[in-house]
Amino acid sequence: MTALIVIGIILLIFFLIAIIPVGVRVGYDKSGFSLDVIAAFIKIGILPPKEKKPKPQEKPKEDKPKEEKTEEKPEEEKPEEKPREKSEHDLGGTVELAMTALRAVGDTLTRLRRKLTVDYIRLQYTSNCDDPADAAINYGRAVAAINGLSPFVSKFLRIKKRDYTVLVGFDGGGDKVLLDAQITIRIWEIIYVALGLAPVIKAYLKWSKSGKGKDNGQK
Hints:
Blueprint: H1 2-18, E1 21-29, E2 32-39, E3 42-47, H2 91-115, E4 117-128, H3 132-156, E5 158-169, E6 176-186, H4 187-194, H5 198-218
Parallel strand pairs: 4-5
Antiparallel strand pairs: 1-2, 1-6, 2-3, 4-6
């Protein structure tokens, strides 16, 4: 009974770790870009970098008396070793490895696209011009761009919440863009995505063994 409880606790711990979401939060405003790494409820700021505290000035080191250099005896020249001939792997195996890697990368990207989740994205654009006509033209272009790109992006990413806003201003302060988005993926999903690279490892081991066998045959 005790063993079953221990196994149950271990499985529960693995399950809780597997469902932890990790990801990034990206932001942009008039002050520049911001980037935070997220793991569950922990957030680590990457951009903008934190200001480093100035280091205390070190005391100047006292000059030590120079030591007299002793004459070193010239080293005896060693006979040059002949470079070993490197054996080349079979070209067919190399091509097979390259094709396997390309297929695996494509499969991995597909898996990653399906598992990445955009928790929310907020995009706000303000067309700010002195001339009302120019502001209206920019407003229309922004609305058309958002309406055209939104369905395209939704085909590749799962977006839970979205907020696209286009505004108009006339204070002459220039166009303004505000972006705030968070993208996450769970740890078990990362393992699932990484499994897409398994064929590459298998093909590389096969390619490596074939090369070593050829080396042994030439010796």
